[in-house]
């Protein structure tokens, strides 16, 4: 399945990137130098809303100068090509400066999520062999100091605030440094290292190259429709691939202004920022949209959202009820965007002038060849129309990952016959759009049917008493596996047992007896990874017989 006739990655590079002499390419040059050299140095690059409520802005010229100085500081410390520079910091401009400076110097940028404790951080710094760490004094004291002796590769620690023995001040580091030009790296040279959440084991370390810039700028221009001078906000933390790609690289490569909001979520402030900053393109998560929905219409009072043109939801499936709510709340529907750390950018989306059908994934974006496959003895084979298959991508797109760091065999196994196997399952609908079902190991096989958690969750989430839900397969002594659901009520029910029975009947009417949940448990919240993904296996493991209501025919089949 091809996304667009006549599309060419060569044309993307020729039209939207400058490159460097000799066929070289450096992401930092494309994100900053190119715009400044074209006369856009005074344009706002970063807008930062600080923890204290104050607003600060950095122009493209100022961001270029600061990142070039940080690159100079790395050079003065002997940081060589391909060495890892990590950040462990809240949402503020300095991690952006450090990341762009690292890329400029030919180092690999590897941001960490700032809520991790000492052991997850130690694991990531050790596996990545981090040479430099940029962090804050509180995080250094609470997270790094207890494990400092276990990090022999870590030579330089730079603190954004405060003082500590064995660390250097960020301000002094930049003040003493001279700005340096970008290193003319090969497009294939390593640039970015993303750590997955590691829900089923140790985190994967996903390595990307400078050539990813082509996919990032194409994603911004063609999928988000983000133009130079546009106003953009991605709410993801820089510690995740979504933050690196859609808060930092995509908007800067497109010459847009990107918003950084440091404080924790607060619905009224989010609406105010969308309005006050004139946000045109917004990338956020279904979890964030649910929190806004829960806050009610009064949270949006006085917020003029007339400039908001595109909302993209990533990180987890966007159910139909939430998509429909967003259309009324914002005047434009939230659109699904599917991708992974390994793909580097959105691969499947609802984009362009296509009607936005709630509860669907969309179609492959330009330049991406996708098929739904199943593994057979002779290799991968496409599934028949309407059947469930694994999302597979034809290798060769620019943001295709280079490696799983230190796991050569795991990387090799991710590709079969030139196709990348995503591990995510979907179904092609009659009109050609795709419906996401879940991870291959989350899809439930029950009584001869394959049931995708996402399609059951989408039905449950339409019920007015449901805030959100999660579905998983639960072992059963007769049926082997049954469909089970965990539901967060939108408000505390007066009669929990009555609500569970009502939801069982509601789901059965909508889904039919074959795929409806056989058990529903009411919970106060869903367990999630640090990245916000639901931990379905934790739900199954924690469930107790007295915690749920079973369908009347659960024991007897039928």
From TrEMBL:
GO MF term (any one): fatty-acyl-CoA synthase activity
Protein name: Acetyl-CoA synthetase
Region (Disordered), start-end ranges: 534-558
InterPro entries: AMP-bd_C, AMP-bd_C_sf, AMP-dep_synth/lig_dom, ANL_N_sf, Mitochondrial_ACSM
Domain AMP-dependent synthetase/ligase: 38-396
Highest taxon, organism lineage: Bacteria
Pfam hit, one: AMP-binding
Species, as recorded: Alkalispirillum mobile
Protein family per UniProt: Belongs to the ATP-dependent AMP-binding enzyme family.
Keywords for the protein's UniProt record, in alphabetical order: ATP-binding, Ligase, Nucleotide-binding
Domain AMP-binding enzyme C-terminal: 455-533
């Amino acid at each position: 399945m091809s996304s667009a006739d006549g599309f060419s990655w060569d044309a993307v590079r020729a039209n939207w990137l400058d490159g460097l002499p000799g066929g070289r390419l450096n992401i930092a040059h494309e994100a900053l130098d190119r715009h400044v050299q074209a006369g856009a140095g005074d344009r706002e690059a970063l807008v930062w809303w600080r923890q204290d409520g104050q607003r600060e802005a950095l122009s493209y010229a100022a961001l270029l100068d600061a990142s070039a100085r940080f690159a100079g500081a790395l050079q003065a410390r002997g940081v060589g090509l391909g060495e890892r520079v990590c950040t462990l910091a809240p949402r503020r401009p300095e991690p952006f400066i450090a990341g762009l400076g690292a890329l400029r110097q030919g180092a690999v940028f590897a941001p960490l999520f700032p809520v991790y404790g000492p052991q997850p951080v130690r694991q990531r710094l050790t596996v990545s062999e981090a040479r430099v760490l940029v962090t804050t004094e509180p995080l250094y004291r609470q997270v790094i100091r207890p494990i400092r002796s276990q990090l022999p590769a870590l030579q330089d620690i730079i603190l954004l605030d405060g003082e500590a023995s064995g660390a250097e001040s960020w301000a002094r580091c930049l003040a003493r440094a001279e700005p340096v030009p970008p290193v003319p790296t090969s497009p294939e040279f390593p640039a970015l290292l993303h750590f997955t959440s590691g829900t089923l084991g140790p985190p994967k370390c996903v390595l990307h190259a400078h050539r990813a810039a082509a996919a990032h700028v194409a994603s911004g221009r063609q999928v988000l429709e983000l133009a130079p001078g546009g106003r953009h906000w991605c709410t993801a933390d820089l510690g995740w691939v979504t933050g690196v790609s859609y808060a930092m690289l995509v908007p800067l490569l497109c010459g847009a202004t990107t918003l950084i909001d440091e404080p924790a979520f607060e619905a009224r402030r989010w609406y105010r920022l969308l309005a006050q900053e004139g946000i045109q393109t917004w990338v956020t998560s279904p979890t964030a949209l649910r929190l806004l929905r829960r806050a009610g219409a009064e949270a949006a009072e006085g917020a003029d959202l007339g400039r908001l043109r595109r909302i993209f939801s990533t990180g987890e499936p966007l159910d139909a009820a939430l998509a429909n709510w967003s259309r009324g709340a914002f005047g434009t529907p939230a659109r699904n965007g599917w991708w992974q750390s390994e793909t580097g950018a959105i691969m499947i989306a609802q984009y362009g002038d296509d009607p936005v059908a709630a509860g669907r994934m969309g179609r492959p974006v330009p330049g991406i060849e996708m098929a739904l496959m199943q593994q057979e003895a002779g290799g991968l084979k496409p599934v028949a129309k309407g059947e469930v298959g694994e999302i597979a991508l034809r290798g060769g797109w620019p943001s295709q990952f280079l490696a799983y760091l230190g796991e050569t065999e795991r990387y090799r196994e991710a590709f079969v016959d030139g196709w990348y196997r995503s591990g995510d399952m979907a179904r092609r609908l009659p009109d050609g759009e795709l419906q996401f079902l879940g991870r291959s190991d989350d899809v439930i096989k029950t009584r001869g049917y394959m049931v995708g958690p996402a399609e059951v969750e989408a039905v449950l989430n339409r019920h007015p008493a449901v805030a959100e839900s999660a579905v998983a397969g639960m072992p059963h002594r007769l049926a082997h596996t049954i469909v089970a659901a965990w539901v967060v009520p939108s408000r505390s029910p007066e009669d929990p047992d009555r609500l569970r029975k009502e939801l069982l009947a509601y789901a059965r009417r909508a889904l039919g007896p074959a795929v409806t949940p056989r058990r529903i448990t009411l919970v106060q919240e869903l367990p999630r990874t640090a990245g916000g993904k639901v931990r379905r296996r934790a739900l199954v493991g924690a469930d107790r017989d007295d915690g749920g209501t079973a369908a009347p025919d659960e024991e007897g089949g039928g």
